[in-house]
Amino acid sequence: MYHARFDATRPAADDETCRRRVREVVARNPRVPGRPEDLVVIPGYANLREFSRAREPLLKAACGGAWRSYVLRSHWRMIFPISPAHQERTATRLLSASKRNFAPIIHLVTFPSLTINHGMVVFDGLETRDGFEFRAYDPNEPARPARLAFNRATRTFHLPQNRYWAGGELKVIEIYRGWWL
After folding, report:
1. Residue 65 has pLDDT above 70, yes or no
2. How sure is the predictor about 111, in pLDDT bands with cuts at 50, 70 and 90?
3. Comparing C-alpha atoms, which of 146, 144, 145 is closest to residue 157?
4. Which of 41-50, 77-86, 150-159 tops mean pLDDT?
C-alpha cells in the first residue's frame, strides 16, 4: 500500500484509533507513494484483507460514503466509449504490473448503465490459454480474492457473479497510471 503498513505483531487498536488512522491514509495523495518511514501503521492485522474482514463497517464509514465512487476525478473516462483495444492494453498492463509486485487500482463499469461502478485492487495475474486471469482485493468481499478474467479472443473482461453483481462482461479502467490516464 502507498500510505499504510500493517503490523500483526502489535495489539489491535480501539475503534477511534483505527478510524483516525484510516482517515489519515485516505487524506493522503493516492498518486504519490509515501516514504516507508511515513507510512501509517495499522496494528493488530497482517494486511488489508484481514483488517477489513474484522473492521468492515468502520473501514467503510471512515473511507466515506458510496457517493464518493461516483465523483472521483478519475472517472471522467467512463463517459467515453471504451474500445476492445483499450481493454486489451489494460489487461496487458495489469498483468505486467502484477509481475512487478505493483497493485493497480481498477474501476469496473458498465456505463451508461450503472449496474456496476466499483473499484478493486489487482494483486496477482497469470496468463491462461484464453487470456489472463487476475486476482484482486474486493472491499465488498474482503474474505477472499475476487477473480477477474480477460478473454483475448473477445477482448473483454468478465467478473463472476457475487453478492452485488449478477456476473458477466464489464469494462475495466485503471484508475491511475499517469497524468493522462
Report:
1. no
2. confident
3. 146
4. 150-159
Q: What is the DSSP string of 93-119?
A: HHHHHHHTT---EEEEEETTEEEEEEE
Q: Say how far apart CA 57 and CA 64 lie, in whole Å.
A: 11
Sign of the CA dihedral with 129 first, then 160, 47, and 94 last: positive
Domain that holds residue 126: 73-174
Q: Tens digit of pLDDT for each residue in 95-105?
A: 999 999 888 98
Q: In whole angstroms, what is the distance from residue 88 CA to residue 34 CA?
A: 31
Contact 91, 104 (CB under 8 A): no
**Coil vs helix vs strand at 143:** coil
Same structural domain, 105 and 50: no
Please tell me whether residues 80 and 129 are part of one structural domain.
yes
H or E, element range at 60 = helix 56-63
C-alpha cell, 174: 485503471
Note if the pTM is more than 0.70: no
Q: DSSP string of 29-42?
A: -TTSPPPGGGPEEE
Phi then psi dihedrals of residue 162, to 5 deg: -145, -165
Picking from 11, 2, 16, the residue whose alpha carbon sits closest to that of residue 58 is: 16
Tally of domains in the chain: 2
Q: Which helix (H) or strand (E) holds 121?
A: strand 113-127
